[in-house]
Design goal:
About 15% of the residues lie in helices and about 30% in strands. The protein is an alpha+beta fold. The chain starts with a strand and ends in a 5-residue tail after the last strand.
Length: about 800
């Protein structure tokens, strides 16, 4: 049974850049994604002498996502398709001024939803001959390394651009030859012992000798053997010079480790053993101590993937744009030897020495969380630069920083909700040591660290997706142990949907979370789109989902009892009560109410559900916020759409807008329970979330700190945050009451230590209202220092537009 073949054939086989050619694509080869597709469209460009990288396409042809007739291919029957064109005319180049090195291809269906590529998802490239007179000869088949099983032969095809004597040698033994020909085809049956075979082409013409080589391995199954007990998936460092790799890969036939030691080619000495149940592959290797060891897996002879449990990876497509200041001395990618992602470990490296090993995280009910996206927070976009801002955060009165995803995600410019490797720190923001130093510094200031993790889905770069993929249906294969074939809960679907009922997916989730706690000392997690942790329809009440989330919580608490576990859930209030009673915290979006109130139009604004008790919750697990990464910025809404009917209080002016944000912060942050703020909310950040697009990079505006109304908002926010932390009256043990409907809103706090009343006028005109005080007597207004003698529990007060007051019955300096 022959194996091998090529997805891309060009006639003539050695084209010049001025030639007319026919391109033939065999959709059954490569990744096989278009094997059942009609019609097929080419998407092609050129790699030229001016390309900035080996993958920098130029002169691209074909309008993606459309049935572009220019790149439509004719069916040749079966799975083969053809397109013919004159290279200079088709690509729009002048051969006298452009040196073409390669043609680049992918193929697609009409919409571009399914794409044919090479094995492993790589683009297809075809060389252009440098000149018409040069003698050329090379292998055209196979185009990759193959592992041959008993009974298989390897298809070999060698060609030359002029008649020559062609000979093929397998490990030095002549296996085929012919004279005065331009093509030699042979199907080689492996001989001799199992192991590595080098096949050499020797082409001779007029005394000139050319050579080319291909490689294959004669595979022999090893005796099944279970790995040592106690190992985890991924890389296990046994000692400074020994590592054991473990890969859960049911339904696979064989796995080889590719690394520098074998030039990233399959080698019988790097064949992984298979467990007795056939589900796991493992190998123990000797490595150089305190040196980076890079590796990837070759699965079933065709798929190259990095370790799904990688702690660091090399990404040749994106690492080149990472500055040396952020990630110094990166491992040089071995581009001449392999392709795709590589995993990196460094056995024997000195561990990070933590200064703050006994950090006590603040009680969850008293959290003031600062949500932060490294990319848009500080210009160097790295952890080292954020350390310089810890004073700023500490003074602001936040006691937790929640980082938007920092694990490896696709591309560099991203919010991070497109994860590819859930355990690998993305190098775009810095090194593992730098992130640990930042966490250590935050802990030294009493600030907890929360990671935003995306366990609802993974993108196509994830090895867990690639290992079991149906290219024809363009979705996870039916036997994928980690993912559902299709997302069961539309429309809330992104990427490839984890099957949280699968034991494999559950084990993955557990190892990922434990890794971040133990390796990076994080204090908890915010689970993105936890509503999707189900194979049900994704409705608002789902007992199965509740149990799956409780299972995660139980496992995390088994090794970190006080871990913060925050859900972005958006389900029925009854389900959120169940999870809150189980000790979870849940996001509660009240942004619209705060925005409407600060813009100053309607007296009907109401954000009473920002208090957990008003939702019928017994536990203070509700995290509400004025802004999050997902919501429009209040300052933008105020300055763009605010009420400008009165010149005396025009919300669209900076001073008025910032003062109204102070008012909203007083209410939004002092309502009992954990709270969150979005980065630069405290400075009135006013670049729209949609400028230039929702997830696009935003300008960093640290200059706002020197603008007086914005600085005043920062200082006021800091005061309010510290009041919440320092005085139990603003905690969850107080008896809280409120009237948060209408223009003038009020809150009351009754505690054994003191009582407090907050009142604010969200109108653009002066308003009066009767305010409920817990008792009569002298009350102290915190911001002005004035006193108020209350003779009756219900006392009328008059407040100017946008005015706010905070009364306490004990003097607070």
């Amino acid at each position: 049974q022959p194996i091998g073949g090529r997805a891309l054939e060009v006639i003539p086989p050695f084209p010049l850049e001025s030639d007319s050619i026919s391109v033939i694509y065999d959709a059954a080869q490569g990744n096989g994604a278009l094997a059942a597709t009609q019609p097929v469209f080419a998407h092609t460009g050129l790699i030229t002498s001016t390309s900035t990288s080996p993958s920098n396409w130029q002169h691209v042809q074909g309008t993606w996502g459309s049935a572009d007739p220019k790149v439509a291919m004719a069916s040749l029957g079966g799975t083969k398709h053809q397109i013919s064109y004159h290279i200079p005319t088709f690509y729009g180049i002048n051969p006298a001024t452009v040196t073409v090195q390669q043609m680049a291809f992918v193929f697609r269906n009409s919409t571009g939803s399914n794409v044919g590529r090479d094995v492993g998802g790589q683009d297809l490239y075809y060389p252009i001959s440098p000149n018409v007179t040069a003698f050329q000869a090379r292998f055209f088949v196979p185009t990759q390394v193959h592992l041959l099983q008993p009974g298989q032969c390897l298809s070999l095809l060698a060609q030359s651009n002029a008649p020559a004597d062609l000979a093929l040698y397998d490990n030095g033994v002549l296996v085929a030859s012919d004279s005065g020909v331009t093509s030699l085809a042979h199907c080689q049956v492996p001989f001799g012992a199992s192991g590595n075979h080098l096949v050499e082409l020797v082409a001779v013409r007029n005394g000139q000798v050319l050579r080319d080589t291909v490689y294959y391995v004669r595979h022999t199954a090893s005796m099944p053997m279970d790995p040592p007990l106690g190992l985890k998936q991924g890389a296990n460092v046994v000692n400074d010079s020994t590592v054991t790799l473990l890969l859960y890969a049911p339904h696979k036939q064989h796995v080889y480790v590719l690394t520098e030691s074998n030039d990233f080619l399959p080698n019988s000495n790097y064949q992984m053993r298979r467990s007795t149940d056939g589900s796991t592959y493992w190998i123990t290797l000797q490595v150089e101590p305190n040196q980076d060891f890079v590796y990837q897996y070759l699965v079933d002879g065709s798929l190259r993937v990095a370790d799904p449990y990688s702690e660091r990876i090399l990404d040749p497509a994106n690492d080149g744009s990472i500055s040396s200041a952020t990630y110094p001395n990166p491992y040089p990618y071995p581009s001449s030897k392999t392709f795709g992602h590589l995993s990196i470990i460094r056995p024997g490296a000195a561990p990070y020495v933590w200064d703050h090993t006994n950090f006590q995280a603040p009680p969850k009910e008293n959290l003031m969380i600062y949500e932060l996206l490294v990319r848009d927070f500080i210009a160097p976009r790295n952890y080292a630069a954020i350390r310089d801002s810890v004073n700023y955060l500490d003074k602001l009165g936040v006691n937790a920083v929640q980082f938007m995803p920092v694990n490896e995600f696709e591309n560099n410019e991203s919010w991070g909700y497109n994860p590819s490797y859930h355990m690998a720190l993305d190098k775009y923001y810095g090194t593992p040591a730098s992130f640990k130093e930042l966490i250590d510094t935050l802990h030294g200031r009493g600030i907890a660290v929360i990671l935003d993790v995306v366990l609802n889905h993974a993108e196509g770069q994830s090895p867990l997706v690639q290992l079991w993929w149906d290219p024809v249906q363009n979705r996870p294969a039916a036997n994928n142990p980690y993912f559902n074939m299709q997302c069961p809960h539309p429309p809330n679907c992104w990427g490839n949907d984890f099957n949280h009922e699968s034991p494999a997916a559950q084990a993955f989730v557990d190892q990922v979370l434990r890794y971040w706690v133990e390796e990076y000392h994080v204090d908890g997690f915010r689970f993105d789109m936890s509503k999707g942790f189900t194979n049900g329809s994704g409705g608002g009440w789902d007992v199965g989902r509740q149990n799956l989330i409780k299972r995660i919580a139980d496992v995390v608490r088994s090794y970190k009892p006080n871990a913060y576990l925050i859900l972005e859930h958006w389900c029925d209030n009854s389900e959120e009560i169940v999870l809150s009673n189980y000790g979870m915290m849940l996001w509660g979006n009240e942004c619209h109410g705060y925005q409407e109130a600060t813009m100053g139009f309607s007296g009907a604004t109401n954000f009473s559900s920002a208090y957990h008790g008003n939702r019928g919750w017994n536990q203070p697990g509700l995290i509400t916020y004025l802004e999050s990464h997902d919501e429009e910025r209040i300052a933008y809404k105020n300055l763009t759409y605010g009420n400008n009917a009165l010149s005396s209080h025009n919300v669209r002016t900076l001073g008025v807008s910032m003062k109204r944000m102070e008012l909203a912060t007083l209410f939004g942050h002092l309502i009992p329970g954990p709270k969150m703020m979005w980065q630069f909310q405290e400075l009135g950040y006013d670049v729209s979330i949609n400028n230039p697009c929702r997830v696009c990079t935003k300008p960093i505006r640290w200059n706002y700190y020197s603008v007086v109304p914005r600085r005043r908002l920062y200082e006021t926010t800091s005061i309010i945050n510290h009041l919440k932390q320092d005085y139990p009256v603003f905690g969850t043990s107080s008896n809280f009451y409120s009237d948060l409907y209408g223009h003038v809103k009020q809150m009351g706090f009754i505690h054994s230590s003191m009582s407090a009343v907050a009142v604010g006028n969200f109108d653009v005109a002066t308003q009066s209202k009767t305010i409920n005080f817990p008792h009569t007597g002298t009350w102290y207004e915190y911001f002005s220092g004035q006193t108020l003698s209350v003779g009756a529990n219900q006392t009328p007060l008059t407040l100017t537009a946008g005015e706010y007051r905070l009364y306490t019955d004990q003097f607070i300096p």
